[in-house]
Write a structure and sequence with these properties.
Number of domains: 2
Oligomer: single chain
Largest sheet: 4 strands, mixed
Helix content: 25-40%
Strand content: 5-15%
CATH class of the largest domain: Alpha Beta
Shape: globular
Bound molecules: pyridoxal-5'-phosphate
CATH superfamily of the largest domain: Type I PLP-dependent aspartate aminotransferase-like (Major domain)
Strand order of the largest sheet: 1-9-8-5
CATH topology of the largest domain: Aspartate Aminotransferase, domain 2
Number of helices: 16
CATH architecture of the largest domain: 3-Layer(aba) Sandwich
Structural class: alpha+beta
């Protein structure tokens, strides 16, 4: 793809460079000049927008294939996976695609996580090390097992768990380390695995938002003792509600398969209900949709790769905008959410939220703030409810709970040591599925807002 602007041309065309941060442009060619013409007035201030056509096409995307597949399941009268093939066939297909020995499908990512914790023996009195910057489901499963979620602060560069702080959080009660790969951006999983290995602690990866993201050629969700994926409708591979539990340990995965199926032995070596369990099974309808969606997903994922990388390259030419940090050179982001670092010092101290507001007025659906989950799960009311519950009071000493409450302050996520880092993000899942012209519109709008940022103060 031909580059729209180079970092050098950006700098050359900005008469003031970064002095004061207002980016005035004097050049007259290419996108830059076009943006310059249109940018005589920002849409937010009454000018005409870069783009009028919406990026928000309906999601999820489906066609006759999903309809036929659903009808086939319906007409088969085998709606429960115990009598059908779709769930068990997809388990095999997904395990192969992810590169693991076993996949157990569930009715959600939450239940995949909770089955993992249960089968790893997490229970009252235990501690699970995790991140406060995640969707609440990650924390709910820990608390519902009557274990303490021990929060480790985030890396200000990524918003993901700071792997360097994990070792200090390990105690003799640590049962599991539960890192989260957010929105297609992998956590520092190799370092996490090495700390966990040193202390012989299992890792459950929450890869619910990050199907097909990779580190050194290996898919996230396949590094840990188990890995969990969500197929809930807002994710990138979807069937309404659904989840997958991945792993290579034959015996553990046998227990996981049993756990989601009321304790039945998947190997049928033991009769009756030999294992603890519940019913977290996926239905044949979900699997029928998922099977078709997976075909579509592979192609969508490639398109997002191509567009995401191109957009990152273009936007990185704007001083003050940077792609997200990767923990190793060979990292594959999946851009479920397309995220960028935003350094307001380069933009007249205009906050990311204001910069994003101007982009939205230009027709580009971008949000801006300090991080994805603003407050952090350690601030949620449900935590204190758990700590006060009978189950927690009998499982943990008063002194432990007091110490725990005192530990719920972390400088980076609480912003008591402000990193000054902010981010811009966009639903890449949908916006990055279009043609190159869409991506060029996004770049053009960013350039236009960057050049006129002084008018936003
Ligand atoms: C990080 C994370 N973990 C767990 C889950 C739970 O997945 P599900 O909604 O499929 O139960 C989600 C879903 O949003 C998630 O984003």
């Amino acid at each position: 793809m031909r580059s729209l602007l180079t970092r050098r041309s950006f700098m050359k065309k900005t008469s003031a460079g970064l002095t004061g941060a207002a980016l005035a442009v004097t050049g007259t060619s290419s996108l830059y000049a076009n943006a310059g013409n249109k940018s005589s007035k920002l849409a937010l201030l009454g000018g005409s927008p870069v783009r009028r056509r919406s990026f928000n096409q309906p999601w999820p995307i489906f066609d006759d294939n999903e309809e036929k597949s659903l009808l086939k399941a319906l007409r088969s009268r085998n709606w429960c996976c115990l009598r059908g093939n779709a769930v068990y066939d997809f388990q095999k297909e997904f395990a192969r695609a992810m590169g693991v020995r076993h996949c157990v499908l569930t009715n959600g990512g939450t239940t995949a996580l909770s089955a993992s914790l249960h089968c790893l023996g997490v229970g009252p009195g235990d501690e699970v090390i995790t991140t406060p910057n995640t969707f609440i489901a990650t924390i709910n499963v820990i608390c519902n097992a009557h274990a303490l979620p021990v929060f480790v602060d985030i890396d200000p560069d990524t918003g993901l768990i700071d792997a360097d702080l994990i070792e200090a959080a390990i105690t003799e009660d640590t049962k599991v380390i539960l890192p989260v790969h957010l929105a297609g951006f992998p956590a520092d999983i190799e370092k996490i695995m090495s700390v966990a290995g040193k202390h012989n602690i299992p890792v459950v990866e929450d890869a619910c938002q990050s199907v097909f993201a990779e580190v050194n050629g290996r898919k996230v969700g396949t590094f840990g003792t188990t890995g969990c994926i969500s197929f809930q409708e807002w994710k990138s591979l979807v069937c309404g509600e659904g989840g997958a539990l991945l792993g290579n340990d034959d015996e553990l995965m046998r227990r996981c398969a049993a756990f989601v199926n009321n304790g039945r032995d998947p190997k049928r070596a033991r009769r009756g209900y030999p294992f603890p369990g519940s019913n977290h099974r996926m239905t044949e309808f979900q699997a029928a949709v998922l099977t078709e969606q997976f075909k579509r997903f592979k192609q969508q994922d490639e398109t997002r790769q191509k567009n995401g990388k191109y957009l990152e390259r273009e936007l990185a030419k704007i001083p003050g905008i940077k792609p997200r940090k990767a923990y190793c050179e060979k990292t594959r982001f999946t851009y479920v959410t397309f995220e960028l670092d935003y350094n307001k010092k380069h933009f007249n101290n205009v906050p990311a939220s204001r910069f994003a507001e101007a982009l939205r007025a230009e027709g580009i659906p971008v949000s801006g703030r300090a991080r994805r989950y603003s407050n952090g799960c350690h601030k949620e009311g449900m935590l204190e409810e758990h700590l006060e519950s009978h189950a927690f009071r009998v499982s943990f000493s008063r002194a432990r709970l007091k110490k725990y409450r005192e530990s719920l302050h972390m400088p980076i996520i609480d912003n008591t040591r402000p990193s000054g880092k902010e981010m811009l993000f966009m639903e890449g899942k949908i916006a990055l599925l279009g043609p190159k012209k869409d991506i060029d519109d996004i770049t053009e709008a960013f350039v236009k807002v960057a050049k006129n940022v002084d008018k936003l103060t």
